[in-house]
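#struct-pred
JK: can someone run the complex with phosphoenolpyruvate? inputs below
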Amino acid sequence: MRQRWVIGNWKMHGRRQQNAQLIHEIISVPLWPGLCVAVAPPAIYLQQVHELLIGSGVVLAAQMVSEYEQGAHTGQCAAGMLADMGVQLVLAGHSECRHAGQTDAQVALQVKRVLEQGMSVVLCVGETLEQHERGETLDVVRKQLEVIAGLGAEVANRLLLAYEPVWAIGTGRVASPGHAQWVHQALRSTLAKSLGEPWAMTPILYGGSVKADNAAELLSQLDVDGVLVGGASLKASEFLSLCRLAAQAR
Ligand code: PEP
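RT: done, structure tokens with the ligand placed:
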């Protein structure tokens, strides 16, 4: 059975008091069997959220990481620093970072750094609206997937993928369950063909305007192993509903 996940990406939202309230509500509910739950607060609040999560079983995630190990890189966080803060999971290649200029070469290095530090990585892939309309979706996501070429089977259980169509992120326009399944299945077979069978077990999450009222059918798709959630992760009741749906799906 593939691991199922719900990951909340808080983006640049939150203040100490709001974070404490949100985490308090999330961890007041017992974890669902078979479901991994993670939250990715802004880097400056990692320490606070780490302390709030102790003993809860909820995974601390980071939204981004530097491609450098250390040095004169003002404002950046190295993978070793994230691991030092208790981070277990790191997003790489989020479309908002790609939009700000991040390249596949940088994403490839970020993935490498995260894995070297013993953490897990969520590689985000997805096509823009123009690429979608030109019918280039699979070409684009397969190209983005090339950053993991050459990874050894020993790290296969520390990779997650998130298919996040750029046209669906923060727009309220969610991909149809059929479209998500089509892309997820293509990603899974590309992984297995290019890297080998262990990679067919890679959890592949969908992200893009997911809410409790549109998630059930997405989560029932054969190759959708969970959701990466932005806006809807900021409200505990909504986030917890998504966790319940993900745990009960299939
Ligand atoms: C995201 O930031 O990864 C995301 C999916 O955002 P939203 O759910 O707000 O579309």
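RT: quick notes.
The pocket of phosphoenolpyruvate is lined by residues 9, 11, 164, 169-170, 207-210, 228-232 (CB under 6 Å).
The first strand starts at residue 4 and ends at 9.
JK: thanks, will look after standup
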